[in-house]
Amino acid sequence: MSAINSDYQKLTKDLTNHIRLNKSYLIWMTFLTLSLFACLYAYFIQLQTGLGVTGLRDFISWGMYISNFVFFVAVSLVGMLISAVLGMIGMKWITPLTRIAEIIAVAFSAVAGLVIVSDMGRPDRLINVFLYGRFQSPILWDVTVVTIYFLLSFLLYLIPMIPDIAITKKYNSNMPKILSILYKFLSFNWINKTEQNDIINKCVRTLLLLIIPTALAIHTVTSWLFAVTLRPGWDSTIFGPYFVSGAFVAGTSAVIIAMYFFSKNYKLQNYITEKHFDYIGKLLVLVSLVYLYFNINEFLVPGYKLKRAEAIHLMDLFTGENALLFWAVQLGGLIIPIVLLFFNKMRKPIPIMIIASFVFLGSWFKRYLIVVPTMENPFLPIQHVPLNFKTYSPTMIEVAVTLASFILVLMIISVLAKFFPVIPIHETAKEKGIIEE
Amino acid sequence: MDKKQEEEENNTRRGFLKKAGLIGAGAIAGAGAIYSALSFEKQKNVSGNKTKLLTQDNKLVEVDSLNIEFTEKAPLEVFQAQGREGIIGKKWVMIVDLSKCRNARKCVGACQSAHHLYPYQYHMNVLQMQENQETAFFNMPKPCQHCDNPPCVSVCPVDATFKRQDGIVLIDNERCIGCRFCMAACPYSARTFQWFDPKEAEKDKNIPYNIELNIPQKKGTITKCLFSADHLREDKLPYCVSACPNGVYYFGDENEDAVTNGTTKETVRLSQLLKDNAGYQLMPELGTKPRVYYLPPKNRTQDFKRTQDDIESKII
């Protein structure tokens, strides 16, 4: 009995040790806050002068902001993949990763909503979407499902954490006073009673069931923002699954980067082990192969026929202005990582983190390549307009506003991961047989 | 006893009659006073000059000119109501005869000055087209196609852009949120966005917004070809149509099967014109059902190559 107790104490100590205010955290958050304000100043300029401060013009009217929005929605999808899909088919190894996946889902889906506002010409009229909303517009569908997905992800983050909050409050002595008040409120008086755990389990199960169709919906609907138009490159029937499978690639790579960071900085190597990196590496290969399959469909079939408008678009990607970026993304962000990850050695923490970073970066540029080249090649020629109307290059303002969204994501992740246990304590204890069910 | 009772009864009856008489007289006098006062008031507001007015629901009414009150808010409401409804019974249609276009660009200029656009902003642009390397260049004026199945209207999240019963697709820049989904959806690149302060923003600031002219233009919103809906309401031809020196444009009502040439003012049968000249639509395979028809660029008298104008070397 005492052995079990000491195991339990070690577990809670290990998993709640990072919950304290330290100097490096304060420096990190100050740095993020200052950078955020610097970048928000760019948005202020945009509000004052107009969207003309971006590189967008009448023909390429969607650019970095929309690509970034698609990317954010994509990354957030991993919450559903890991917690719901893998969890429900009984994969036990995902336990220490579920909360990391949910943190990413919450942070990226919350900021995605703001990213889309930064692209609006009249953000002051946002309320019109609710006052005059027309339901045949995919934007309405997107607003609806992204909001629902964010709420579900947030609940799926919070509810399974109730036992852990109670445990942390009990065992962690070095947390700030204000946090301990919040903990008291959020632990809902959990004392490990069977009835309490039953309620939590039921809630989580319902949420997991709900989040699968919602997650599929958010990214399918996001793909429809493009697929419902007539433009070459977007006018595709496989855009839904193409986007969803791509989202799993982006999200899995984000989870790998976060795993590496947390295991190293919070000293969780005993909980996020090489085995976990190995398994999630295999998962990344699987989702990347599915994505590659959709890529082949998406480019080979129209490339075989080369209909006039499609041909202009595809030639631009294969051999034209955007070719360098296109091949860099397809090879460096998808094909080479797949090949490398086939090797056991490449699925060790450090190499897989580097590979995942390339995949993550590639995923961002992939969205850019989905949005911009299509707009650069409309059906009718672009004539009698200034030089910069014909091609798109993002301005510093756009880059800064986009950076702001990433900083915001980092801040949300930093706060959630700092003040709440990153790895499920109660769940891990149960699985290790340290406490009884 | 009986006598007494009788007397009392008589008294009460008499009293009643007396009172009733008084009240009656008073009432008549009062009514008379009110009546005379009313008619006096009435007389005061009659000048004898009647003015004919069109109500918001398009009914003609006659009002004494003294009774007309001017309100601050009314113009916007009127513009919005009539602008969203359209001109009843009409189905506007435009024919562009490509064989006649010499790229004079008078249509472009007239349009830009009517709608207060910068020189690089187009509701109407003349493109220089070449179908393939072997075929000749031709000029193609390109306004909004005012599609009967408009992709822009489908995707608008706030009903800012809409299709009217007379066939015109308009944009309400009082409601537009600037998401630019309509620009992405339009296969004809017909839409323009106000990336900066519009050209005459300061001057137009206090004009009530006319949805049929899209003035004042507003920063952060869409602007597009309106088939000159404000001119149509005044029984005039669109700005571009009447500005053309080369007889390129015909404009009219599909319901009447009649279109008028903007240059020669000659009115012809729409169906006959399309039949005789093999009229076609732009990219009909997309299913957008445009309301603009083109007549093929045959028998052109001049030959030319693609030219660039000054603006194409600038950065704005």
Record keyword descriptors for this entry.
heterodimer, A: 437 residues, mainly alpha, Formate dehydrogenase/DMSO reductase fold, B: 316 residues, alpha+beta, Alpha-Beta Plaits, 5-stranded mixed β-sheet, two-stranded antiparallel ribbon, 9 helices, 13 strands, 17% strand, elongated
Describe the protein:
The complex is a heterodimer of chains A (437) and B (316). With 437 residues, chain A is mainly alpha-helical. Chain A has a single domain (2-431), classed as Formate dehydrogenase/DMSO reductase fold (Up-down Bundle). Chain A is built from 17 helices and no strands. Chain A has helices spanning 2-16, 23-49, 64-76, 78-88, 95-118, 128-131, 138-158, 162-171, 177-186, 194-227, 239-265, 274-305, 308-318, 323-341, 349-376, 396-419, 425-431. Chain A is globular and about 75 Å long. Chain B has 316 residues and is of the alpha+beta class. Chain B has a single domain (86-313), classed as 2-Layer Sandwich (Alpha-Beta Plaits). Chain B has helices at residues 2-44, 74-85, 106-114, 151-155, 181-185, 201-204, 229-233, 239-243, 270-277, and strands at residues 50-54, 60-64, 92-97, 125-129, 138-142, 161-163, 169-171, 191-193, 222-224, 249-253, 258-261, 267-269, 292-295. In chain B, the strands form 5 sheets. Chain B has a 5-stranded mixed sheet with strand order 12-11-10-3-13. A two-stranded antiparallel sheet of chain B has the order 1-2. Chain B has a two-stranded antiparallel sheet with strand order 4-5. In chain B, strand 1 and strand 2 form a beta hairpin. The mean pLDDT of chain B is 88.
